[in-house]
Amino acid sequence: MLDDLRQLDAGMGERIPTLQEVLEATSLPIHAELKVAGAASVLAEFVRAEGLIGFVTPISFHPGILRGMKFALPSSPTGLIFSGAPPDAAEQARSVGATLASLEGEHANAEVV
Fold first, then answer.
1. Are 46 and 54 in contact (CB under 8 A)?
2. pLDDT band at 111, cuts 50/70/90?
3. Residue 28 · residue 35 · CB < 8 Å
4. In a domain, 36, yes or no
């Protein structure tokens, strides 16, 4: 499957990079978005093995995935992504141990933040 993905065009002729390639290309901390639960254990093992806790922050729209990440990497920051800006975003993020909540910019205002 990775070979198939690597053949796709990510835009302007660029190929989809692996996480390792992204990390080699930057010295900045990154957010790694988890879209499926099965990827969580793979990311957790990679982050642990490479000593990247705090440098790679797992983020997701899926609270259950973040719960699993906090179990696998208790000291790692995590982020819950929201579509919109629910009034209880901070509560929802805290309920899964997330250290950040990502809101759609158009919905974020001084009251919400």
1. no
2. low
3. no
4. yes
Please tell me the predicted confidence (pLDDT) of residue 108: 65
Residue 2 lies in a domain: no
What does the alpha-carbon distance between residue 57 and residue 47 come to, in Å, rounded to a whole number?
9
* Domain count of the fold of the chain: 1
Reported pTM: 0.85
**Secondary structure of the chain in HEC code, one letter for each residue:** CHHHHHCCEEECCEECCCHHHHHHHCCCCEEEECCCCHHHHHHHHHHHHHCCECCEEEEECCHHHHHHHHHHCCCCCCEEECCCCCCCHHHHHHHCCCCEEECCHHHCCCCCC
Band the pLDDT of 1: cuts 50, 70, 90: confident
The CATH number of residue 73's host domain is 3.20.20.70
